[in-house]
Amino acid sequence: MTSTTEQFADVAATTLLRFATAGSVDDGKSTLVGRLLHDSKSVLTDQLEAVEAASLKRGQEAPDLALLTDGLRAEREQGITIDVAYRYFATPRRRFILADTPGHVQYTRNMVTGASTAELAVVLVDARNGVVEQTRRHAAVAALLRVPHVVLAVNKMDLVDYAEPVFAAIAEEFTRYASELGVPEITAIPISALAGDNVVEPSANMDWYGGPTVLEHLETVPVSHDLTACHARFPVQYVIRPQTAEHPDYRGYAGQIAAGAFRVGEQITVLPSGRTSTITAIDALGESVDIAWAPQSVTIRLADDIDISRGDLLAPAGDAPATSQDVEATVCHVADQPLTVGQRVLLKHTTRTVKAIVKEIPSRLTLDDLSQHPEPGQLVANDIGRVKVRTAEPLALDAYADSRRTGSFLLIDPADGTTLAAGMAGEAFAGAEAAAVTETTEDEGWDF
Predict the structure, then answer these.
(1) Pick from 177, 187, 234, 235: CA 20 to 30 A from residue 211's CA?
(2) pTM, whole model, 2 decimals?
């Protein structure tokens, strides 16, 4: 008989890789993506014909492969990437979801979006310019978002005569910087996206390089989806109570499993109330199952009638996160208006949205030397900093290092719904005394 662990191993053995590209303006991100799609035979004939026609109109003899990803009119006119472009392609060895993210400093927020679900980030560097501030910014974002694999693609090697010392110096500087940030794995590859060197096919111009091409690395990099190792978390999205003659007593809690697995007969804790019960049934796709795991969408039924609503979190009784009204986290500020101390915001965590106040901004990260600028008073667009937030109701956050899904949140402007910042909770809950769940009353103001 197949064990549960072996069943999970079969499910986890996926061939899908999510990855994002990043880099400074004109480093060649879109050209690299276009070259990947073109040389891996992932471009439809009509798409290639459209690119060739657009290139001819711009006076280019060869097709501009960057146009395969720069889809907005403003992107084509300005020759830059503005929005995140998602592309789906496959090779015989693996399927890919690619997020081509902008390089301009004012679009760093888009890079945060594209890399938030990525398992690998390709950071491009122009061989003529080396590591610049935006390179450091992208490395910092990748590290903060816990992207486990980073590829340094040193592009435009054809413009530096394919010189090995140029590549080696850039690779050493970037690797040292990214390692200080805590990036666990860094792979440096010298390429020319325009000429196709080391993108899909090995380069004949760099016989001194013996590593993989970009595509070969993407196809072979290990991607871990060990579902059994995750802390099981189930944010409730909807309560199902049909109250029909056929189902008079049916009460189910629907949503998508954020992490881990749930089993019939397992004792769970409902947060933030702290009430416990036992799973009596799990319904998936109209059928009852004994076990379900992330990212399945299911309906869970419990043995006890507990007051549960949208935003509550189900977790195993022996592995439930602490709850607190005090959140300390690192945030990437993505709005045009600044985030200030004392500002009233909404905090959205999984399916739960609560009122909150920014109590303190302890520091802002200086990318040049990774130092912390203390007490900046505010964060502006593209800043990365630490914040302390007080919420009106207790939240059950994991550390982002443990779970990218249940350790992340958004800060939202309550006036117009604008996303202000993307947050990654650290281990700095306010302490044991603050972790205790307290009774909250309906507050007229926002003084909590």
Answers:
(1) 177
(2) 0.79
